[in-house]
Amino acid sequence: MSDVVPVFLSVLNTLLSCGHTEYAELTFEPNSTTLYSGEHVNLTCHMREANVSEWYYEFKWNDKPLVPITSTNILRIPELTTDRNGDYQCIAHHNSSEENKRSNRATLSVSAHRPRATVRASRTSIPVGGSLTLTCSVEESEGWSYDWFTRSPDAEEIAIATNPVQNSLSISQGGSYWCRGRRTHSDFFSEKSHVHHIDRTLSNRSFIVLQHNWTQIFSGETISIRCEIQGGGDTQWEYKWRTTSSNQPVTGPNTASTHSEYRLGAASVFHSGEYWCKARADWYSSTEWSDAFQLRVTPDKPRPRLTADDTTITGKGRLALTCSVENASEWSYDWFRRTSASSAAQILRYNETDDRISISEEGIYSCRGRRGDTTFLTEDSNLVTIENRVSHKASVALQPDWSLVFSGEGITVRCEVPADVLTEWEYEWTKPNSTTVPTHNEYRIVNASSSDSGSYRCLAKDKKNLNSTTEWSDDLTLTVSERPSANLSADHRAFPVGGSVLLTCSVGPASPGWKYYWYRGEKTLEPLTDEDFKSNGQSASASREGLYWCRGGRGDPVYYTQYSNSVRIHGIGDFSGRTTTCRHCVSVMADSWSLMDSHLWRGSTSDCRMEVLLFSYELLPGSNGGTEQNSSVIQGLTESAGYACRAGRGDPVFYTEYSKTKWVWSEDSDRVILESPVHPVTGGQSVTLSCSWFGRTNLDSNFSFYKNDELLQSDVRGNLEISAVSKSDEGFYKCEHSGVFSPESWMSVKLAYIIIFPQLACVLFVNISNGYGAVMGCVVGLVLRVLSGLPSLGRPVVLHFPGSVLDDGVYVQYAPVKTISMLSAIAAIVLFSYLTSVLFNKGLLPEKCDEFKVKVQQSAQELTLVHGAKEDNGKEILDNTCPQTEASEPMIRSDW
Q1: Is 693 a residue whose pLDDT tops 80?
Q2: Are 641 and 575 in contact (CB under 8 A)?
Q3: Across 158-162, 572-576, 600-604, which has the greatest mean pLDDT?
Q4: Helix (H) or strand (E) holding 611
Q5: What confidence tier does 293 reach under pLDDT thresholds 50, 70, 90?
Q6: Residue 621: predicted pLDDT
Q7: Is the confidence at residue 638, as pLDDT, over 70?
């Protein structure tokens, strides 16, 4: 109680002001630390080592006389009130002298409210055959005795113990118990304690069972749990439930939670948890709580899985369907069938206990599970389509019948069924990378790619009964490869007068249906039809010199292969020790032209090294100063040699380019020959070096190619192909066959004149040229050249100049793209050199950014064009800020 003021009795022994020791002591009775309003108290003044009757006693309250001096040492206060709080003291006066003695000071506090007793039990219930102890206390104060009470069956209060000093009571029967405190030797009572109900535990055991004893409970099911009493007999029990689930049971008389069966209604995940129950036989007798029953509710309905022994019924056969749900014995099954995907499901069997049935009809089947005799159903199962297989079997065919198809070709895949005039079919396909399934009997591949490779098969369905089908066709494997290349070979590279060379064109990998197209010289859209060229399918007879190509084509429209490798053939003159004539110096000789000189290129190794390196020829006798005739007679030829000529006219003489080299072979020249470029080749071009044994054909052993005496390649092809030559490919080449080596031949590589020539021309003739212009010239020239197409490097045409022609899906440039790129590079050098010179010299760009030092540091110079070109009207004057005399630094070095 918050307003209880404890009374403290303290005895203090102090020295009196007179120097005498206290021999009096003040005490309270009852001797308790807590006193309450309404009870009485006795104050006693005890004398030490003195006769009580020899003294008179004075009692003081807060240093004020409480009563007149009296001869008795006991003062009784009959009924305490809260205004009696304070300090108390007694003074003893001797009756025959002036001696007096003071007691200790004792503080008295009085609580305004009566205290309440409290009952505590040693356990919650009386065990079977045992007892428990009740303890009564009054606000933990002393000086009390205790009264105990209980209630009879007719609710009458009965005192079972009165005024015992012990505050505990042992009981062995259940009931309602309470107590109160009584001041010893007094009629002052505390308030009664609250009623404490004590249960007696019965020997009967309670336990929980699930109504249907199912292994798994699903959300939405109606379930109940039941509390059963072991050995309960005919006793009328009342039940109590508790749980850890979110849905707590409602308690109270006649509620579901007071019955033995606790219905959960439509179960949900919120019912998951532990459940306990116990039963009560009367008000004070009950069983112990049952063991915990764990209930788990699965949130989703189960979905059965329908499987079939087979998906096809053949003839009048039968097959079995199985509906699978976990814990199958807890379910019964409903079976359904529909005739098509758009028709309604019809029930075949209802509440079937067997999870397996036998069927003989085609259709679309499903099932579902039913929980015992309840209305709880599973989800519908997956659908299983059962087909009735007719006797026909489909087949897959290609049109054209090419099992190997190439990228870009068109082909049709057909599904064929034996003729049946009574049936109209719909088709089903399985094919690679299928996002849509065609229903027709043809599947057209317009532009084949690698994604179309794979296996194809089909079946046919009766349109009136889609579950009646043919058998699946066998797999047809279609392989789509990259566009093939043709391969051109010749039985030999040289032919005598009146003879010919047999050319053979083949397509690999081998596949049927090819026709072959032949070309000489440039690759054109029109194949050869010359009289001196006779083709017979894969082979052709060529009796004219030149560079030959071929390619294959098939289908409608024609699908072409890549062009083949090139093969150059030449004629052989028969003039050992005789006279020969060199003609065709100029394709069309006008009267004003004269044959200025003819040169001999001899085949000795030492001469070849020097002459090819310097690009010089040996002038034929009698051709010094030129001849009027366009032919030259060479007498006494004893060895094979190469000849070239050029024409000239005017004064001073203007010369044509040298003709292509013409080789004249001696009939006794039985040796290995390397055919290589005579003139320097431009970097980036493709070059083919050919090795042959003059006078021999059908050579089966390897040809070996060497560069600077290092082996590069050894195989039977007889060709060394360099797709894009560079400066590193420059050197001496030779070839070997059967231990015989050809003479060495020097191959020189020149850089593209779109890079070197523009820089050289600007350095020599344009004073304002600088490093910035040189860099931009290189960039512009190279970009234009690459965008114009570089077939040797595999770069397609992006920038189409006039005359660009589409040849078999590939653009071919006929415009002078190299010259256009070179002129654009010169323009870029001049433009950017001029701009950067102006920007730096006028201070529009800071000098610290001038990496090439173009700023003029001497007196301004006039920009002058060489070779007498006119000056611009407005001369550009540069600041004289550069220590050198030229307008700028030299351009980027061009010696690479």
Answers
A1: no
A2: no
A3: 158-162
A4: helix 605-614
A5: very high
A6: 67
A7: no
Within 610-709, strands assigned E span: 618-619, 632-634, 641-649, 654-655, 662-664, 672-675, 681-682, 687-693, 703-707
φ/ψ (deg, to 5) at 25: -140, 130
Q: What is the 3-state secondary structure (H, E, C) of 486-551?
A: EEEEECCCEEECCCCEEEEEEEECCCCCCEEEEEECCCCCCCCCCCCEEEECCEEEECCCEEEEEE
Tokens of 306: 């329908």
| Residues facing 92 on adjacent strands | 57, 101
| Alpha carbon 110 to chain centroid, angstroms | 83
| DSSP bridge pairs for 101 | 92
Each residue's pLDDT tens digit, 20-70: 445 789 998 887 767 888 888 889 999 877 788 889 999 999 999 989 989
Six-digit token string for 680: 């320097």
Among 169, 160, 167, 174, residue whose Cα is nearest residue 127: 174
Query: For strand 384-393 and strand 312-314, is the pairing parallel, antiparallel, or unpaired?
Result: parallel
How many C-beta atoms surround the C-beta of residue 119 within 10 A? 19
Nearest to 397 by CA among 478, 454, 342: 478
704 bridge partner residues: 714, 736
Q: What is the mean pLDDT of the chain?
A: 78
Backbone phi, then psi, for 364, in 5-degree steps?
-110, 115
The single-letter code of the amino acid at 611 is E
**549 close to 535: Cβ distance less than 8 angstroms:** no
Strands 494-496 and 567-572 turn out to be: parallel
For residues 247, 253, 259, 262, the Cα torsion angle rounded to the nearest 10 degrees is -10
Phi first, then psi, for residue 656 (nearest 5°) are -80, 175
Mean pLDDT computed over 552-559: 90
Q: Are 768 and 834 in contact (CB under 8 A)?
A: yes
- H or E element, residue 77: strand 74-77
The shares of helix, strand and coil residues in the chain, as percent rounded to the nearest 5, are 10, 40, 50
Q: For residue 601, what are the CA distances in angstroms to 320, 586, 640, 746?
A: 92, 19, 10, 13
CA distance 228 to 208: 6
Residues 6+ away with beta carbon under 8 Å from 710: none
Residues 6+ apart with CB under 8 A from 465: 362, 388
The pTM for the full model equals: 0.39
CA–CA gap between residue 69 and residue 91 (Å, rounded):
9
